[in-house]
Amino acid sequence: MTPPGLDTACRLADPDAAYRLLVEAHRGLSDEDSARLNTRLVLILANQVGDPGVLREALALARQAGSAPSVHPSR
């Protein structure tokens, strides 16, 4: 049986609330402390994922998304 791949469908009931939680978690932190928080969060979530193949897909998607040019609306 093939393990399921990365599920990229939004599974958040309220994506805006999830985003606010992430922003609030960083409020008042130095850049260094913010980076440490991100590192700990990534490791916790990687453990939750548990599947190295799915984690590999997620990392590739994150790298790809990070290198995509920004799109700005016309002014």
According to DSSP, the number of beta strands is 0
Class of secondary structure makeup = mainly alpha
Span of the ends, CA to CA: 51 Å
Task: Estimate what percentage of residues fall within beta strands.
Answer: under 5%
Which features does this protein show?
75 residues; mainly alpha; 3 helices; 63% helix; 0% strand; globular
Provide structural commentary.
The protein is an all-alpha fold and 75 residues long. The chain has three helices and no strands. It has helices spanning 15-26, 31-49, 52-67.
Secondary-structure topology with pairs:
Elements: H1 15-26, H2 31-49, H3 52-67
What is the compact description of this entry?
By secondary structure, this protein is mostly helical. Helices cover 63% and strands 0% of the residues.
